[in-house]
């Protein structure tokens, strides 16, 4: 993975990082609360050779003291001194346990020993440190006694042990920093794992690459899509409506040398935004002066008529069964867009769409309109969309952000390829809308309020933008 990939993981999965940080902070706080505090007491011991008679002897004695100090560090650590302290203080623990709580250090080229004892009780730590130093000096005196029963090396306590009033562990700041760092690492690891195992669509580029077709655009998430799906009509100056106009323009420029008149809009699965996309695209094309008809070819679950507030009982199935002529079944929406609803649900939708009567219907629509948009069923549950696309000029494949899986997109593309159908382009629906300001162009905030009555178009309540500053040229 490149640095840009890691940055994308952080940007898209930042909630994992925040959760990891909070978890690390909670763990550090719990540790501070549950772990008993520990205090240290330190005592310094000075090691010196017996007073010499001349300068040479004094120098040799000083070297001897430095050499002895290194040995004394090991002497204190080997447990002999610890056992004396345990007997003296009557402590209920082993010599090894006490030795692990006793740290002995010596500064290089000095004759000073530092004995540091850690204990949950600061007073007990001080007592143990004093007794350790006392036992050590006595041991040195016995071990270093010369022929005249005078020690050649002396060990003296510089000053009694002092106990720290603040516990050395746990320390709030280091623990909090460690917890936050561990939480950050854990959060990023979880985010990376989720990213690597997430097979849903995240970018329009992913969708286009999977299908090997041009990227026609995105449709932004509209929180009022259920009550007011026709955003091109209800809020024509919004950024959401602009996305559909961009889709309209890109579709018109796909393969300009070969004019495409019949376009199927479909998706791999259900609830991926194909119907909302096709009805808004139809309105956008009509308002651009294109003679367009919108056909509900989803004969299993027709939804175009409900979305536009039209009668859905008469439509495609009525024309194909001969119960109504095409002119009688066509409806006008707003005087600008012609619509052919799905009609009554038939028991054999695939056979109807693959019939010669359907081919005749498509030919009739081609002769009347500049563009024919067909809302088809999803590709994976049924074969209707693939059959229909094979009879048309191509399909626009709609995939939903964070919902459609990449494997479903591959399967949908394969279904179209098996019938030699062409994918004209892809659309990523319900994508997050960039937080940008479009106030200069009029894409200001808006509110939608549904009008009374079945299928009535929502009324636009626009928030008047602040006056733009004057633009001057050089």
From TrEMBL:
Reactions the enzyme catalyzes: L-tyrosyl-[protein] + ATP = O-phospho-L-tyrosyl-[protein] + ADP + H(+)
Broad class of where this protein is predominantly found: membrane
Domain Polysaccharide chain length determinant N-terminal: 7-89
Keywords: ATP-binding, Cell inner membrane, Cell membrane, Kinase, Membrane, Nucleotide-binding, Transferase, Transmembrane, Transmembrane helix, Tyrosine-protein kinase
GO MF term set: ATP binding; non-membrane spanning protein tyrosine kinase activity
GO cellular component: plasma membrane
TM segment ranges: 16-35
InterPro entries named among the record's database cross-references: AAA_dom, Bact_polysacc_biosynth/exp, LPS_length_determ_N, P-loop_NTPase, Wzc-like_C
Membrane topology classification: Multi-pass membrane protein
Chain ranges of the AAA domain: 273-391
Subcellular location: Cell inner membrane
Enzyme class, spelled out: transferase
Region (Disordered): 454-474
EC id: 2.7.10.2
UniProt-listed NCBIfam families: eps_fam (TIGR01007)
Family affiliation: Belongs to the CpsD/CapB family.
Protein name: non-specific protein-tyrosine kinase
Organism: Saccharopolyspora montiporae
């Amino acid at each position: 993975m490149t640095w840009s990939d890691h940055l994308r993981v952080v940007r898209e999965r930042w909630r994992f990082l925040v959760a990891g940080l909070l978890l690390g902070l909670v763990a550090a706080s719990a540790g501070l609360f549950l772990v008993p505090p520990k205090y240290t007491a330190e005592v310094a011991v000075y090691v010196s050779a017996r007073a010499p008679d001349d300068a040479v002897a004094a120098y040799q004695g000083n070297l001897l003291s430095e050499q002895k100090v290194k040995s004394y560090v090991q002497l204190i650590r080997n447990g002999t001194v610890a056992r004396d302290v345990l007997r003296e203080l009557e402590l209920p623990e082993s010599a090894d346990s006490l030795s692990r709580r006793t740290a002995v250090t010596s500064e290089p080229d000095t004759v000073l020993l530092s004995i540091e004892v850690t204990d949950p009780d600061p007073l007990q730590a001080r007592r143990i440190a004093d007794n350790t130093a006392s036992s050590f000096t006595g041991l040195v005196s016995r071990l270093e006694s010369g022929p005249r029963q005078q020690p050649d090396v002396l060990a003296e306590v510089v000053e009694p042990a002092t106990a720290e009033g603040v516990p050395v562990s746990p320390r709030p700041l280091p623990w909090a920093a460690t917890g936050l760092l561990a939480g950050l690492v854990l959060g990023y690891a979880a985010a990376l794992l989720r990213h690597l195992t997430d097979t849903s669509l995240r970018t329009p580029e992913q969708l286009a690459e999977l299908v090997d077709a041009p990227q026609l655009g995105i449709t932004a998430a509209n929180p009022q899509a259920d009550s007011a799906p026709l955003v091109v009509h209800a809020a024509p100056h919004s950024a959401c409506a602009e996305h559909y106009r961009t889709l309209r323009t890109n579709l018109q420029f796909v393969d300009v040398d070969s004019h495409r008149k019949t376009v199927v809009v479909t998706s791999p699965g259900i609830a991926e935004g194909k119907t909302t996309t096709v009805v808004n695209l139809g309105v956008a094309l009509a308002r651009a002066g294109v003679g367009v008809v919108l056909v509900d070819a989803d004969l299993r679950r027709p939804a175009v008529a409900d979305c536009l507030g039209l009668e859905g009982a008469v439509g495609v199935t009525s024309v194909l069964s001969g119960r109504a002529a095409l002119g009688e079944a066509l409806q006008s929406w707003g005087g600008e867009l012609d619509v052919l609803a799905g009609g009554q649900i038939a028991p054999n939708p695939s056979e109807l769409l693959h019939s010669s009567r359907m081919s005749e219907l498509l030919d009739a629509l081609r002769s009347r309109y500049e563009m024919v948009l067909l809302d088809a069923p999803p590709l994976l549950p049924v074969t209707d969309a693939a059959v229909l696309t094979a009879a048309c000029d191509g399909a626009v494949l709609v995939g939903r952000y964070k919902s459609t899986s990449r494997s479903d997109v591959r399967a949908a593309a394969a279904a179209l390829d098996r019938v030699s159908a062409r994918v004209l382009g892809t659309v990523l629906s319900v994508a997050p809308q960039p937080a940008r300001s479009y106030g200069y162009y009029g894409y200001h905030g808006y509110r939608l309020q549904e009008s009374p009555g079945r299928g009535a178009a929502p009324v636009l309540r626009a928030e008047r933008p602040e006056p733009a500053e004057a633009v001057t040229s050089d």
